[in-house]
Amino acid sequence: NAGVTQTPKFRVLKTGQSMTLLCAQDMNHEYMYWYRQDPGMGLRLIHYSVGEGTTAKGEVPDGYNVSRLKKQNFLLGLESAAPSQTSVYFCASSHVGELFFGEGSRLTVL
Amino acid sequence: AQSVTQPDIHITVSEGASLELRCNYSYGATPYLFWYVQSPGQGLQLLLKYFSGDTLVQGIKGFEAEFKRSQSSFNLRKPSVHWSDAAEYFCAVGNLNFGNEKLTFGTGTRLTIIP
Asked: Which residues in chain B touch residue A98, judged by CB atoms under 8 angstroms apart?
């Protein structure tokens, strides 16, 4: 009954550090997404994937990289974190348009 | 480009009162429309969706929404709110063409319920 699982749930980074957020889904969905949520701005799409081995840029891709080596996993990487990347990150997978979200990962960059 | 406007940032209603949350969209073709709800500290959960057919759609938790093409709107309604409805609500418009299945979200409306 896991659905979409994100790790870690909280992380504090210093400017310039790198990190990876992991998203795992057990619903065999083809489509997966990474969103960021900031106050007053709703959810903005960072990157998405339409299947294993494929990725595409969303609305705000700069400063992030992603990989989809396995169908069930979608990784979001920050190579050199900046304070502007302080946000809550949500992973989602979808089936016929319905998104299933993880509980979010709160990232603070100092 | 597709876009969604939720003009109300914050709405306060009394428990038992009726509710309407506004959503206007911009989309070049027949839109796929969604309402999601987010409780504090949680991810988003689908309330309802409109793909085609009957313009009044029913969702979970007693919510409904009406698609009005002439007004480019998809407003969410509930006849009598409960304290547990306090949350943030997001309207979204989507493109479900294969290989391009993604949603654009509005900025959200925060709902506060007073006793």
From this structure: 34, 46, 49
- Give me the residue from A40, A43, A96 closest to B90, CB to CB: A43
Percent of the residues in chain A that have a pLDDT greater than 90, as a whole number: 87
Structure-token match 């619903």, residue found: A27
Q: Which residue has the higher pLDDT, B22 or A96?
A: B22
pLDDT at position B42: 86
What's the burial of A12, exposed, middle or buried (CB within 10 Å: 0-12/13-18/19+)? exposed
Tens-digit pLDDT profile for residues B70-100:
999 999 999 999 999 999 999 999 876 655 5
Report the chain A residue with the minimal C-alpha distance to residue B47: A98
Chain B contact residues (CB < 8 Å to A)? 9, 32, 34, 36, 41-46, 49, 51, 90, 94, 96, 98-108
